[in-house]
Structure formats: C-alpha cells, structure tokens
Design brief:
This is Acetoin utilization protein AcuC. InterPro entries: AcuC, HDAC_I/II, HDACs, His_deacetylse_dom, His_deacetylse_dom_sf, Ureohydrolase_dom_sf. Pathway: Ketone degradation; acetoin degradation. The protein is an alpha/beta fold. The chain has one domain: 3-Layer(aba) Sandwich (Arginase, Chain A). It is built from 11 helices and 8 strands. Helix 8 links the parallel strand 7 and strand 8.
C-alpha cells in the first residue's frame, strides 16, 4: 500500500453553487487556500488529483434513473417541481447535474485510490452531501456522494465498510441507502432530531432485517460542548468499529457542530473538531491499516470556522497535525476579508479551547450526555455482541 495521501481537488468543484444559500462554495475555496498557504497541500506524499464526473452507471448504484433525469431537466424547466427540487433548501441551479456528478466523482476517486492501495488516505472536502435520498434531493444535497463511493467500494469487492458521520445533522441519506446491507456500518453523532433537521437518527434506528446493529445513532442534546461530544464519541464509536472490523473507514466531517454555526445548537470548538479528526485517524490506523476516506459536509460559519476545521482535517490526513497556536497567514486573511467583507477573520488556528473529556462510566448521576450514550449503547451494543454496561466495550 502506498503511504501517499490523495487530495481530490479542482476549482470546478466550486460550481456546486445554489446561489444565495447557506451552502456557499466559498467555504471550500477558503479551506483549500488556507491549507495551501500553510503548506499542507505541498507536503511530501500528498498528491492532488483532478476529479471526473460520476457517470450514470455509478450514480444509479444509489439513485433512481428517473431522479437523474429530473436533475438534468429541472434547470431548463421554469415550472419544474418534484423530487425535492425547487425548494428553499434545494433550489434548482444551472449545471446542477454536472456539478453534483463531479462532487460524487471526486469522492469515488478518493475511495478508489485508497481501496486500490494507491494511497493510504484520501480527502474530498467538497463532498459529504449525506442527506440526498435515492429519488429525492434533501438538506442542500442533490447526489449522495458518500453513498455512491461506498457502493463503488462494494462493487470492487469490499465486504465491511464503516461510515462515521460527525456532522451536526443526522447522516440520514447514507443510513437509508444501506439500511438493509450488513456490509456497511453507518455511525452518526448529531444534535437530537427532536431539535434539528432531518428529524431522524434516534438510538432505536439500528438497521433493517438481516442488518440489525449496522446503524448506530448518538443523538446529543443542544448545547453539548467539546467535553460532552468527545465523551459520547469515545463511549460509542471505537467499540462499534472494533466489533464490526471494517476494511476501510469513510467519514463525513461536517463542521456545523461548532458553537458559531448559525444553523445548529451544539457548542464545539475548532479544537474539539481537530481532536475528533485525530481520533478517526487513529481508528483507521488501528482497524483498517490506515485506509481512510474523508469528506467535508455541512458548515455555515463560512469564514470563522469551516476553513480552519477542514484545514486541520487535511493536516491530520496528510501527516502531522497543525499546532493549534499557528497563525493564519496574512494572505489568507486578506482573501477571506475580500470574499466575505464584514466577517470576523480568525487570526489563529485555535479557539483556545481545551478538548479534554472524562471517559464515560455507567455509574453516578447521569448527565444529559450520559443518558444519550446509555440509550445508544442499550439499543445497539447487544446486537454487536457488546455489553452496554461495560465501559471496556
């Protein structure tokens, strides 16, 4: 296996642009610019790969052919309605099929590079469109690139793929696609569906017939900070991944759990997100010989948060983590200020937060986070042969 890291990138990925909309491609542009100025993309062993659009054969492994036809037609039909398109969440835009297929193709390229041993890790920060359903756009997502990439891995012979989603929103589309497939473990940590879109992701969602235990959901109460998030992550994710024994890890690394994100109510810091990426890499190293495919996802603090979070992700994937005290380069700050005048441009790669946490224990007076942990462990751990009450599991 090559020790290289592939970063799938081309400026054409910025064409996934819904206009005046929270999902603004400037967050991806600023991420790549920041990672470039900090030298992350020029590290030894980092290869930039230009993506090609996913063709219909790939897309229809997940999506209904009629839906693909609708995505193609909608920009040319001012009266078009249906398939979740033409809504405020998923407005129709020019080149919608082409740009969406390119995002999917980029994540497929990342997955193929890792599976074939051409790279140990691969990243597509423009990907992570995890809400798209087989025949419906949803949650700013047209084609579900993580699901398409996982389906491609299965076609290439993979037997056990783990998908871990740390976006603030439930990874509902990926879960739905693989609900009945015991070869794919989907794990999602997210804000409770009682408070946030898409309204799914409860602990008792554990997989379909023949695949029970392959859907794992950790819904967390509003206001959870780094300590609570990391406590929940480490109380659930390592155990279920070790029980499943994946050959490859796919992650969706949405940055919208941050306390500054305008669309959600968790209180993570960039430092806590960095700690999550380090934990994911360690699990890939432990369980998958390092095979890790990472995508972006949500994140709507376009200048203040996403570029720093995903630059940390790129650094963790490509080698040494960036020191949190690192200054953001002046050239990048000037670019960010020009792209989004009036936004506060961060001076350092840290929020000055300490991402320490106390490991979960099944004793004492439970907090709201502990109750969420206990509910998930009770629902899914026995299905995986694990003891929900044993902190060693």
């Amino acid at each position: 296996m090559s020790e290289d890291t592939v970063v799938v990138w081309d400026e054409s990925l910025l064409a996934y642009d819904m206009g005046d909309h929270p999902l603004d491609p400037v967050r991806v542009e600023l991420t790549v610019a920041l990672a470039g100025e900090l030298g992350v993309l020029g590290r030894p062993g980092v290869r930039l790969v230009r993506p090609e659009p996913a063709d219909d054969a790939l897309l229809t492994r997940v999506h209904d052919p009629r839906y693909l036809d609708a995505v193609r037609v909608a920009p040319r039909d001012p009266l078009f309605a249906g398939f979740g398109l033409g809504t405020s969440d998923n407005p129709v835009f020019d080149g919608m099929h082409e740009s969406s297929a390119l995002v999917a193709g980029a994540t497929v390229a990342a997955a193929e590079a890792v599976w074939r041993g051409e790279a140990r890790r691969a990243v597509n920060v423009a990907g992570g469109l995890h809400h798209a359903m087989p025949a419906r756009a949803a949650g700013f997502c047209v084609y579900n690139d993580p699901a398409v990439a996982i389906a491609r891995l299965l076609d290439l012979g993979a037997q056990r793929i783990a998908y871990v989603d740390v976006d603030v929103h439930h990874g509902d589309g990926v879960q739905a696609v693989f609900w009945d497939d015991p070869r794919v473990l989907t794990v999602s940590l997210h804000e409770t569906p009682l408070a946030l879109f898409p309204g799914t992701g409860f602990p008792d969602e554990t997989g379909g017939p023949g695949a029970q235990g392959t859907a794992v959901n950790v819904p967390l109460p509003p206001g959870v900070d780094d300590a609570g998030w990391l406590r929940a992550f480490h109380a659930v994710v390592p155990s279920v991944l070790r029980a499943f024994r994946p050959q490859l890890l796919v992650t969706q690394c949405g940055a919208d759990g941050h306390r500054l994100d305008p669309l959600a109510d968790l209180h993570l810091s960039v430092d806590g997100q960095r700690a999550t990426y380090l934990a994911l890499r360690a699990l890939a190293d432990e369980l998958c010989e390092g095979r890790w495919v990472a995508t972006g996802g949500g994140g709507y603090a376009l200048v203040e948060v996403v570029p720093r979070a995903w630059t940390h992700l790129l650094a963790v994937a490509t080698g040494d983590p960036i020191d949190p005290a690192t200054l953001t380069p002046p050239g990048w700050r000037a670019l960010a200020a020009a792209r989004r005048p009036g936004r506060e441009v961060p001076l350092r790669m840290t929020d000055d937060a300490d991402p320490a946490f106390a490991p979960w224990q099944p004793t004492g007076e439970p907090s709201s986070v502990d109750r969420a942990i206990a509910a998930t462990r009770k629902a899914v751990f026995p299905l995986l042969g694990l003891d929900p009450h044993d902190p060693r599991d």
